Structure formats: C-alpha cells, structure tokens
TrEMBL record:
Protein's recorded name: S-adenosyl-L-methionine-dependent methyltransferase
Record Pfam families: LCM
Annotated spans, Disordered: 1-25
Record's compositionally biased regions (Low complexity): 16-25
Any one GO molecular function term: methyltransferase activity
Domain of life: Eukaryota
Keyword Transferase in annotation: yes
Upper lineage: Eukaryota, Viridiplantae, Chlorophyta, core chlorophytes, Chlorophyceae
Keywords: Membrane, Methyltransferase, Transferase, Transmembrane, Transmembrane helix
PANTHER family from the UniProt entry: S-ADENOSYL-L-METHIONINE-DEPENDENT METHYLTRANSFERASE YKTD-RELATED, S-ADENOSYL-L-METHIONINE-DEPENDENT METHYLTRANSFERASES SUPERFAMILY PROTEIN
Length: 345
C-alpha cells in the first residue's frame, strides 16, 4: 500500500511539471468545497483525529487475511509492519477473542461507519498487486511507486532483473528503509529497491529520479495508490504530466481516484460523509476527484498523451477481486466512492 497519506507534501504541487500542464476538460473533474472536519466536541473527532490514515489502512489490509476470509489479499508482510508500528493495537487484535470481527463491525456499521471499508483496501491491494505482476509478465523491468508509504510490493513481487523505485518524503523514506532492514524483508542475494527521498512539491519527478539508475527510455510501471484525491487539482494534473514525460512507449500508470459525483454531492455514496470528515480530522482532506466513467477518465488522461487501458467502477472491482460478494447499492461490499484506472503511453 502506498500513500493514504502520511506522505503529505510529496507531490503536493504535482512537482515542477505542474506549470503549463495540459488541463483536462472541466466537466470531468471536481474540486472539493468542504475540507472541514467534524466538531472537535464530537465522538467522530475524538476517534479519528489521532492515528495517521496510513496506519489505519495498514490495519485494514491485515483484517480479511487474518480472519481467513475468501479472496483475501496476499500481503503477508503487512502484519509485520503493523506489529512493529502499532504494538498495542496489534496485541489486542491478536489476543483478544473476537477483536478483529468487532473492529470490522464497528468500522462498517452503516449508521456511523463506512460500509465496505475493509474490503476496499483488500481489493485495492489485490488490484495493484496484479498491476505489478501483469507488468512484469509483459516484460516491463522498472516499477516506480509514487508516495510509497508502507507499500510492500518490491519485497513480495520482485523478480531478477526488475528494479523498483520507491519515492517518498526524505523522513518517510529513511524510516521505511530502517523498518525494511530491521524486519529483514529483503533476503540474502535479493535486490533492495532504490529509495528516492524527495519532496515532489519542491523538486520535479524527473530531477528526483535523476542519478538513481532510472531509465526513461525503457517502459515503466508507475503506481499511484491512495494519493490523487488528497492532491489539489493543479497538483494532480501536474503529476500526470510528469509521469507522461518520463514514460517510454509501453509504460503503464495505475491509480485509484475519488468519484467527482461524491465530492459534489451527486448521487448516493454510503459512508462518504463519514470518510470525508474522518480524513479531514487528521488534517488530510479530500481535495479533488474525477468523473467516474470510462469516458471521463479517458478525457482526464488524454491531454497527457495517455490512452485509457482499464477502468473499474466499485462494482467492477468487486466482480474482479472479490467475486464471492454480491453487490448492493444500499450497502455496498466495497467503499463506493473510489474507482480505479490504468493508462498507457
């Protein structure tokens, strides 16, 4: 799993490439007009204000796997990161009977929670895993993970001859490397990823990768997980311009995004208001969205010389990654305000 969102600042301004970047049509984008958290006197604020969002996502990533549920993700390293970063919370989940199931019921209660919150992380993890395995099977030898956070794909899915580049803020990058070394994620004889310590609000993506061994003449897989909806619109546009500029023919960009309709209050998205207030309470508000249709995403990436390769609605994602779960508009089995797309140069 990548950003979600301790990496605030990295990519905040979309890198230096934001200047002059081609803008997508106005009817396929949305800018949030409500970045406020909940009342500081309320229960939601007290529950959500403390722990960083990416810690919460790390816990969510372990739940279906720990509970032995069907079609769970294969991230066997997430539990070890959780145990190291959150020892008290991990102890409770491991040793208190029923604690995992109770946590999940609380998170997904339709009255105050987010239906499908845990399945969202489970399915998203599987989808980005499939992006990496699919790219490697197609012969791509470079993988760049933007705002890497606690992503573990370099250590689980790496193969001989493939280079991974993890881009993150200097402090986050240093901490990640220390954790990886302490926990022994990289076995003897295997290659470490290249840790790129850079604040993309201050330096361009091209400058960050310069001198790291990255080869812009070779096809690359770029993953942007759990990040775009936290970026201002200009930053998001600038990031795609930068990614396109570094993409040789055959390169792929996989990303998840927020439905513009949810940000604009169009339609029914169970749990969205709670999620919006929860992340804002942590100082990590949702800022931008994309029209969640194949046509909308295609129009969003086209100005950057990119072709839409894949688009999945929440219902599509369930069918592909969690096929044992029936779809329900009233209580969706996966958070219904996120969608997923892949583009190709």
């Amino acid at each position: 799993m990548a950003a979600d969102r301790e990496t605030k600042g990295s990519a905040e301004n979309g890198s230096a490439a934001a200047a002059g970047a081609a803008a997508p049509p106005a009817d396929v984008i949305a800018v949030s007009k409500d970045n406020k958290g909940s009342s500081k006197m309320g229960m939601l604020y007290m529950v959500t204000k403390g722990q960083p969002t990416n810690y919460d996502m790390l816990v969510f990533r372990t739940l279906n796997r720990d509970m032995g549920l069907p079609n769970h993700n294969e991230d066997h390293l997430a539990e070890r990161l959780r145990d190291e970063l959150m020892p008290y919370r991990s102890w409770m989940l491991k040793h208190l009977p029923g604690s995992k199931a109770q946590l999940r019921r609380t998170l997904e209660n339709p009255l105050w929670g987010v239906p499908g919150a845990v399945n969202f992380i489970d399915a998203r993890t599987k989808w980005f895993d499939s992006a990496v395995t699919g790219a490697l099977a197609a012969g791509i030898k470079q993988v760049v993970i933007i705002a890497a956070g606690y992503d573990t794909r370099a250590y689980r899915l790496g193969a001989p001859g493939v280079r991974f580049f993890e881009i993150d803020l200097p402090t986050a990058s240093k901490r990640k490397r220390e954790l990886v070394e302490k926990l022994g994620f990289v076995k003897a004889g295997a290659s470490m990823p290249t840790y790129v310590a850079a604040d993309l609000s201050r330096t361009s993506l091209a400058d960050a990768l310069r001198g790291t061994g990255f080869d812009a003449t070779q096809p690359t897989l770029f993953t942007v997980e759990g990040l775009i909806y936290y970026l201002p619109l200009a930053a998001s546009v600038g990031l795609f311009a930068a990614l396109s500029g570094l993409s040789a023919p055959g390169s792929r960009i996989f990303f998840d995004f927020m439905a513009a309709a949810a940000l604009e209050g169009r339609g029914n998205f169970p749990g969205f208001k709670v999620t919006r207030k929860s992340v804002a309470n942590k100082g990590e508000p949702f800022l931008s969205g994309i029209e969640a249709t194949r046509e909308g995403v295609s129009a969003y990436v086209a100005p950057h010389g990119l072709r839409l390769l894949d688009f999945l609605s929440p219902k599509d994602m369930v069918g592909r990654m969690l096929p044992h779960l029936p779809w329900s508009d009233r209580r969706p089995p996966i958070a219904s305000f996120y969608s997923y797309a892949a583009a190709e140069k």
